[in-house]
Amino acid sequence: MQMVLVVFGGLLVLCASALWVSLKPAGAHTAPEHELSVNEAHRTMQRHRGCSRDDCPRKEAAFRVLVESGRVRPDSGRLY
Ligand SMILES: [Zn+2]
């Protein structure tokens, strides 16, 4: 019986930590589920100022939106 409790408790801890990882702000660096608006893209670029576009799909997506909307020229250096 005790064994079952230990296994169950272990599973619970695993689930809780998986949930925690998915809720952590680091999860916000994944690519957005929807196309960002220009406003959202601006905010995203500011929030992810410290990120490299190579490592942060969300910043990359925001940058693409700004380029496509003509706000940013890819060849004009790093604006953010
Ligand atoms: Zn980021």
UniProtKB/TrEMBL annotation:
Source domain of life: Bacteria
Protein name: Uncharacterized protein
